[in-house]
Write the structure tokens for this entry.
Amino acid sequence: MTVRQALMRVLLQEDVNFLLTNRLPRRLVTKLVGWFSKIEQPIVARASIAGWRIFSDLDLSEAAETRFGSLHDCFTRALKPGARPIDVRADVLASPCDAIVGAHGTIASDEIHQIKGMPYSLAELLGDASDAAPVMGGTYVTLRLTAAMYHHFHAPHDLTVERVRYLSGDCWNVNPIALKRVERLFCRNERAVLSCRLNADGAPILLVAVAAILVASIRLTFLDTGGLLRAGGDRTVSISADIPKGADMGWFEHGSTIVMFLPDGFTLADGIAEGQPIRQGEAIAQRR
């Protein structure tokens, strides 16, 4: 057994993982990692990226750049043109991000699940019960971005973002170990609710970007925030931003989660299952 395998075996033990990633002072650790990740010093950058590789399956072969000025630059890297082909079929919604598929199902009531046996309120997640009405009877799917993944998220179809609601909160880890132990985790964490409509027919779609421990920062490409989204505190901003299918909508500065809410009339694409990896641009849902 290699040193890396031995370390990963220890870190993947549920009690140890939960202790290390959640029982520490989360906000303090997050601020420290955010500060450290932006240090632009070649030795620090190379050493921190090498350390990151020890604890993750980081693959930089598709990155647009091969050298990074800081750990932060590596976290938020762009990809080579064409690295993520987009499913252009008109009746298909593309995955907004690289992810592991999590809980999903029909939106039959206000209660949905972050993982089996751990429900949360859709109204609480969105910050306003009325926002849930357009997607009742539809489908939700949870997409977890791991720390090593490409951290940008993209438009699943040609759409218009009509409103952004930012809700400040905690920064719990969003891995399955934490999802099994922390009730209403997504409702506790910092998040941004993007209310969108498809340009073709006005169908509503909600994308909820949920931040997590460590850097825990959400950035949006179509909203001039002058900095991190959290800098302005809780707020709702009405906008009208047209974004073509596959275009960059924003990024996390560490791994996190996006929960998609689709209206009645859409179903998840064939083969979508919990635990399955999916890449940005691949089909995730289609019209019935």
